[in-house]
Amino acid sequence: MTEKVxxxxxxxxxxxxFNFLFSVESTAEERVVGxxxxxxxxxxxxxxxxFLNKLRKTGYTKKIKFLYQKPNPDSLAWSxxxxxxxxxxxxxxxxxxxxxxxxxxxETANIPIVYTLVYDPVKSGIKGRNLYGVGYSxxxxxxxxxxxxxxxxxxxxxxxxxxxxxxxxQAKHVSDACKDFNMEKVLLNVKNExxxxxxxxxxxxxxxxxxxxxxxxKSITSIFRIINERSIPIVSTIQGTxxxxxxxxxxxxDEIANALYRTFLxxxxxxRKVKGKREIVQRSKLIYNMKISKRLGLQPSIQLITxxxxxxx
Amino acid sequence: MRNRIIKYLSIIFIFFSMGGIIAFISTQRVTSDLKVLxxxxxxxxxxQDLIINIKTVQNNxxxxxxxxxxxxxxxxxxxxxxDKAVNRCLECHHSxxxxxxxxxxxxxxxxxxxALSAFITTTAxxxxxxxxxxxxxxxxxxxxxxxxxxxYFAHQKLQYKTEKAIEKxxxxxxxxxxxxxxxxxxxxxxxxxxxxxxxxxxxxxxIAAEKVASGELGYSVxxxxxxxxxxxxxxxxxMSRSLKExxxxxxxxxxxxxxxxxxxxxxxxxxEKKNIINEFVKGVVDVIDADGVLLFLYNPDHDLFSLExxxxxxxxxxxxxxxxxxxxxxxIYQGCGKKATMLYKNEEALRAFSEDNFEAENLYVLWIKxxxxxxxxxxxxxxxxxxxxEDTRILSIIANNFAVAIENTLLYExxxxxxxxxxxxxxxxxxxxxxxxxxxxxxxxxHELNNPLTTILxxxxxxxxxxxxxxxxxxxxxxxxxxxxxxxxxxxxxxFSRKRPLQLTELDINxxxxxxxxxxxxxxxxxxxxxxxxxxxxxxxxxxxxxxKQVFLNLINNAVQAMPEGGVLTIKTGLQxxxxxxxxxxxxxxxxxxxxxRIFEPFxxxxxxxxxxxxxxxxxxxxxxxxxxxxxxxxxxxxxTFKVLLxxxxxx
Amino acid sequence: xKRVIKGILVSVFSLMVIFxxxxxxxxxxxxxxxxxxxxRQFQRFLPLTEYLSKKIDREVKLTILSRYGxxxxxxxxxxxxxxxxxxxxxxxxxxKMDVEPSVxxxxxxxxxxxxxxxxxxxxxxxxxxxxMQGKVIAFVDRATVRGYLFPIIYFKRHGINDIKxxxxxxxxxxxxxxxxxxxxxxxxxxxxxxxxxxxAILARDPTLRKELKIIATSPLMPLSVLCLKKSLPEKLKTxxxxxxxxxxxxxxxxxxxxRMELKGFRRASMNDFxxxxxxxxELNIDPETYRY
Lengths: 313, 652, 292
Prior knowledge:
The structure holds three protein chains of three kinds. By secondary structure, chain A is an alpha/beta fold. Chain A has helices at residues 2-29, 42-58, 75-87, 98-107, 121-124, 140-150, 165-178, 193-202, 214-218, 220-230, 253-268, 290-295, 302-307, and strands at residues 31-37, 64-69, 92-96, 113-119, 131-136, 155-161, 184-190, 207-210, 234-236, 247-251, 278-281, 284-289, 310-312. Chain A has two domains: 2-136 and 252-281, Rossmann fold (3-Layer(aba) Sandwich), CATH 3.40.50; 140-250 and 284-312, Response regulator (Rossmann fold, 3-Layer(aba) Sandwich), CATH 3.40.50. In chain A, helix 5 links the parallel strand 4 and strand 5. In chain A, helix 2 (42-58) crosses helix 11. Chain C has two domains: 2-112 and 222-289, D-Maltodextrin-Binding Protein, domain 2, CATH 3.40.190; 116-218, 3-Layer(aba) Sandwich (D-Maltodextrin-Binding Protein, domain 2), CATH 3.40.190.10. In chain C, the strands form three sheets. A six-stranded mixed beta sheet of chain C has the order 2-1-3-12-4-13, sandwiched between helices. The A-C interface holds A 137-139, 141-142, 145, 177, 180-181, 249, 282-286, 302-303, 306-307, 309 and C 121, 123-124, 136, 173-175, 177-178, 181-182, 184-187, 189, 205, 207, 210-211.
């Protein structure tokens, strides 16, 4: 820990030194790009890393100064983060997750916002003149179908974050699909980690669907701890929660990173001719957790086994 | 008896047959158990086949590469026989637990087949093929595990079943021995019971005969069982019962006689009529069970039969005073032939009796006759049961006795009355003789005394005419006064002994009494005596006025003298029967009881100095000579009452 | 003496060999192309073997042909007398080996042929081939017409010569089911599938109808064709063909058909392979050297 802190402080020091030394030169060339993560969760880091790798090849990184904000998943924190970046004269904002994206749209109508990892942005109401971005869609029905074939779920708990539009939309899609699979849904709307704990303990169900949410992803360990006691499966749509889920269907991260790269380039080049401000990634990855499956005494269907992109053993 | 023997033998037979059937069924069951066991063993081999099959397939799975040779057919064959083995297991087992396990096994086999098929047919990338192989292998392992677990389970079941079967065989053996034993015991007891059944009734009869012989008549034996003996017992009981009935009849008769004796005796022992009636009615009630008994006796004076006595259970009678005219009763009496009779509700005679006084379902009339004359009758209301000839006879005897007893009392009363009269007459005779003797003596004495007294008085007068001292004069006065008094007594004596003829005139008694009171009123007032008079209007009667006046004078004077301290003098007159009565009462000291009978005797006085002892005697004689009577009542300290009765006499 | 004994022994032995050979000859080995569940398939065809055995008085045995591609090799290595081939494997067998078509099974609904579909998710926004550029496509197997060759020729006819450059990625799922679910899950944008299996999946899971749609349909092709080795006695071949054709008229045969869930058989001809033949010609591929 102290080692990390020391390293970090050295890096920060060097960055400051660098900025100081080349400040005159930079201001002419450099553009400030603000990056907001809806929460400090692995999937955002991963996408961002892939995105930076792509960008690095084009050489753009040299002309861009990235300022990062990784607030706690909370509406106020998101707004504050965006305000800070605007105060630092960010010319472009990259937002990860629907929570931060929504907050950004409230804070500025001029600075271009490039959002990513937003589930069904149209239905989630993510729109604005200055908005560009990468949404994604995954067939939640598939997830429900595999779940139903693996274990007979009669009552499905649907955990949704009230503060994130993506989560709400996805919860709605799941709820709508439940009927087709003869499942009763128990919708658990939460605002914070405390509420998650209370509601999970309060309601009973046969399986839990964790919708796409930075808040939920951040709280995955505590969710898992509660659910695990009951020996019921979790299904989720966020990458990085597959270790806690029986089945996980998430958008293809590479595709997302590529789309983000493409969109970002468009915005930074101010290429107005490129049609479409929005790209929707439809490819998904299916992960089956054999460890959890065995612990719950479940046997996956052959389709799931053959179809899964990855099997956790 | 025969039936019973047959019954017992049948039961023994049934026991034997039961034993046989049990043995047969048990053998069948054991055989079927053995069959099940054999089956289980066979199934056990199936299961072992199953496990071998699974193991073979699992081995194939791991030995086979991605390309398939002839091994593929072996796998298919093995899997199919595995499938068959499971299905065969499913066919025989039925317990839900086992079926559940087999179902799981079957599902697993289906999954295994799916996985294997997918593994064999999928051509895509090796990673996925490998994944499928692993899944198949895993299901195979689960299958093996389940099958092995089931083998263990089945093994246990087999052992359990075998143990059960052996247990069953043992049980059957025990059961058979038990049946045999029970049959033997039952046979033994049957023999005992049969012997007992024959001996017991005889013994019972013997005891019964002894009991009857020892006087316990009516003793019955309870022999219900062997019908032959039951008949005998029945005859015996009949005999015993009839003996008892005879005896009871005799006893009852004796007791009735005793009762009759008691009642009649009691009737004859009692002399009071009322008591006889009571005894009689009570006696009848004792003899007959009825709601009530009413006794009516004839009153020849009014030609009526009136209710004398009754005993009723409830308050049957609405009136207590019932009278029937002699005519009606005699008519009924004649109507029923002068005999005791039972009347029923709708009969006229019953209505005549009951009138509106009581309600009766039936009425038994018992006539009471004496010397062939009807002297009364007895009504017995609502007789319970029937009245036998015997009862009638007894009742008649009681009634006759009653009549006799009543007659006796009448006679007794009569004698008593006559004796009393006789004694009274005797007493009067003595009194008269006594008075006559005294009178005679008194007359003689008076005559003899009268002359000397006249001499004394003449001489005394002569002396007084002489010149004498005052002292002598005083003494002479005393002599003269005392001599006068003596002459007075002598005169009264003469009066007493002299039988003057009565000078009868029509007399108003009230008036005469008023004259006397008027004459004596100064004396009365002087003694501060309050006078009360209650005079009723009286008819005139023939009497000697002077003599009557003397009587009143005597009585009132006596009363005044009895109250020296004052008091109340009450004088009453009135009519009593055919007499006039005069009552003189004082509130004085009264006359002691011991001397009361003697107050009318001559020379008897309580006043020592004042009286002559002749006043009341003279009064007594005067009243008597008028054909009346004089009575005295006195209570010491309260006062004395004299009552004079005078017959009302008119001119003829 | 010794020679006599030796001779007798030799003759006995040779008799045994002949007998054995005869016995070997006596068994007819029929191969089955694996479809979905091989065990079910095996059991489905078992009554037919019993029936045939009785009718031709020769033992008839079944064997599974394993993966699509290995079929031809296995046919010769296992010395089979005939097989129920798929339309492509049948075509290749006819081209590579001496086999000839005998009969085609008729399904209960009366069909003996089915087509191939190219499917996408309804929400994918793909309406035609031009929308497919840069997408991911899932084929079934190289050794299938409906699952691979038809889509290839379809794209070629739409001006796409090189699928490797047109699509972002392509891969083989190994089974028709897997292709359908790859599209359903969004793991592939486009899928290729045999029509009868696609319909069966949709019948089992009607919710999928809302999620999937068909972009292209291939011409009809037989589901499977029984091909017999040319070297079999002509009489036997005719007999087998005739027996199978007349099964539906025979009481026992009807019973077997019922158990096989088949309506009957129709005569097969080279015409049944025309579609495949055309594809090979159009693609200019020599069936003899076609690698799968």
